[in-house]
From TrEMBL:
SUPFAM superfamilies: Aromatic compound dioxygenase (SSF49482). The keyword Oxidoreductase applies. This is Intradiol ring-cleavage dioxygenase. GO terms for molecular function: dioxygenase activity.
């Protein structure tokens, strides 16, 4: 990811791409999600596109560029979605803890205030200064509006985050306090889909391998964690985890995975992740693609978001850096 250009000084103050900064004393990266949205709109000429939804425009503007890198940061080739606009789901996604490392302002750091958080490729920090290593993974969530009859939930904003190959969390783990990788926001398109380019997360002691996500009514709502209409976690299947954890860079993950099951995990254990277990295709060489259909019922009251007392991330303690 390239670094964000410096603002240009004008007679009226600092500006970026012809627009005055909302927070003149702050850098471009700290302008906030609203500034991001205006940047995307201006780039795509949204106001002249009749009939195209906001979610589709934002998603297109945030699509990752083709990678010119090599090794573990290459874009996975196994990216064919397994879901479709007519997908169905057996019920509402369970409410789960956001854990103590959400980065949404509910427990210290708040990446959702940062300009640049709306992005599909989350392998690098927002400022491009650091990149997470690991086996390539793309993951796609298709959000369905159960209160509206199970139709695609176009326009909702999805914030997703997960640990590194070593089981650490950016913004929280020792040595990663100023790193923002493996965190990002996408807006659902007309099919209710969001997709992220990332790496396969590691397995830390006490937790089954997972990806956190929060769903917000729209992009403007993400700066306040209490606005989330759903908070849950995606579980990764054992077969793919075992293959990945045999690779270098995932030291300790195989050992940790051997000590837990979906049934014993204190987040997925209620039903062994019946509605949260992703479908995964691909392999270590070409990368993996995970898909999950997520049903959300706005007629029910969200019950999750906070970390459980005496627990780290819903059971388990990611190692220090």
């Amino acid at each position: 990811m390239s670094r964000i250009p410096e603002p240009v000084q004008t007679p009226d103050g600092p500006a970026y791409e012809g627009r005055l900064l909302d927070r003149a004393e702050e850098e471009v990266v700290d302008q906030g999600a609203a500034f991001d949205l205006r940047t995307l709109v201006s780039r795509r000429g949204m106001l002249s596109l009749a009939g195209i939804g906001l979610g589709a425009v934002v998603l297109a503007a945030c699509a990752p560029a083709s990678s010119s890198g090599s090794g573990s940061t290459a874009t996975p080739s196994a990216t064919t979605p397994a879901t479709s606009p007519t997908a169905t789901v057996d019920g509402e996604i369970p409410d789960e803890t956001a854990g103590p490392y959400p980065g949404d302002g509910s427990n210290g750091p708040d990446v959702l205030e940062d300009s640049g958080i709306v992005r599909a490729d989350i392998r690098s920090s927002i400022d491009g200064a650091a990149t997470a290593d690991g086996v390539p993974l793309t993951f796609e969530l298709q959000i369905l509006d159960l209160a509206g009859g199970g139709v695609p939930f176009e326009g909702v904003a999805v914030y997703a985050w997960h640990c590194t190959a070593q089981g650490e969390y950016s913004m929280y783990s020792e040595g990663l306090e100023n790193v923002t990788y493996l965190r990002g926001v996408q807006v659902a398109d007309a099919d209710g889909k969001v997709a992220f380019t990332s790496i396969f997360p590691g397995c830390y002691s006490g937790r089954w391998p997972h990806i956190h996500f929060e769903v917000y009514p729209d992009l403007a709502s993400i700066t306040e964690a209490s606005n989330a209409i759903a908070t849950s976690q995606l579980a990764l299947p054992e077969s793919a985890c075992s293959e990945v954890y045999a690779q270098s860079g995932y030291d300790g993950s195989s050992r940790n995975l051997a000590t837990i099951t979906l049934a014993s995990d204190n987040v997925f254990g209620d039903d062994s992740a019946a509605l949260q277990l992703a479908t995964v295709t691909g392999d270590v060489a070409s990368g993996y693609a995970a898909t999950l259909v997520v049903g959300i019922d706005t007629a029910t009251t969200p019950t999750a978001g906070a970390a459980p007392g005496g627990s780290a991330g819903g059971g388990g303690e990611p190692p220090a850096g």
